[in-house]
Amino acid sequence: MIDDTGRVVALGRAIDEGNSAEVVALADTIAQDEDVFTATSRKYRARPGIEAHRAEIHRAEIHRAEAHRALHYGLWLAQVLLAVVFAMTGFIKLTISPADLMQKMPAGLVLPLGLIRFIGFAEVAGAIGLILPSVTRILPVLTPVAAGALALVMALAAILHASRGEIASLAVVLVLGSVAVFIAWGRTTRS
Questions:
Q1: How far apart are CA 158 and CA 176, in angstroms?
Q2: Is 174 exposed, middle or buried (0-12, 13-18, 19+ CB in 10 A)?
Q3: Three-state DSSP class for 1?
Q4: How far apart are CA 51 and CA 65, in angstroms?
Q5: How open is the CA angle 80-81-86, to the nearest 5 degrees?
Q6: Would you put residue 166 in left (φ > 0), alpha (ψ -120 to 50) or beta?
Q7: Helix locations, 137-166, DSSP H
Q8: What are 38-79's pLDDT values in tens digits?
Q9: Cα-Cα-Cα-Cα dihedral of 182, 184, 186, 188, to 10°?
Q10: What's the burial of 85, exposed, middle or buried (CB within 10 Å: 0-12/13-18/19+)?
């Protein structure tokens, strides 16, 4: 009995020589072996334990895909909301007059106007960095960097508000910082 490679070589030689009887005989032998292989693999696939295992794997893959989709939508929602908040607050800090700043922001009494403007610029840049790289898919690695930078800004703001005893402002800052950390984590682990 010739192995599979030998049969294929013999079939090629028979075709080259024009020996049609040998070609038909070798082709039938190869086809019969193929039928035995197919029947054996069908029998293997039909085993109940294998089918149950495959179904379990399929269910796990579906669950993993649904969890992935939920995380994806949650990250996008968090990114958009955080970008809106930081774009608005950053724009206000960039455009507000010094007189209005003294009235509306008690922290403006302790911080120089240049620092307030810089923080506003950082917040607007962070808002752009949360959305633009992910939407355009150009350097999406910048999205978790922007989220991490905003988390750092919020950590520094938390220190400032805690030192001044502004508990209500501290709570808002901690929530915004937590959302920024969530985005940084989610966009880093999903990449």
A1: 10
A2: middle
A3: coil
A4: 21
A5: 100
A6: beta
A7: 142-164
A8: 554 555 455 556 667 677 777 888 878 888 888 889 999 999
A9: -160
A10: middle
What pTM did the predictor assign?
A: 0.66
Nearest to 88 by CA among 115, 132, 126: 126
Counting every residue written for the chain, the total comes to 191
How far apart (Å, rounded) are the C-alpha atoms in residues 116 and 139? 29
- Res. 1: pLDDT tops 50: no
Residue 148: closest CA among 107, 94, 191, 186: 186
For residue 62, give every residue at least 6 positions away whose Cβ sits within 8 Å of its Cβ, in sequence order, or none. none
Task: Give me 88's structure tokens.
Answer: 């608005």
Q: What is the DSSP letter of 36?
A: H
Q: Is the pLDDT score of 87 beyond 70?
A: yes
Smallest CA-to-CA distance from 132 within 152, 122, 146, 121 is with: 146
Which position has the token pair 């955080």? 82
DSSP string, 54-123: HHHHHHHHHHHHHHHHHHHHHHHHHHHHHHHHHHHHHHHHHH--HHHHHHH-GGGGTS-HHHHHHHHHHH
Please name which of 134, 149, 150, 138 lies closest in space to residue 190, comparing C-alpha atoms. Answer: 134
Tokens of 134: 């992910």
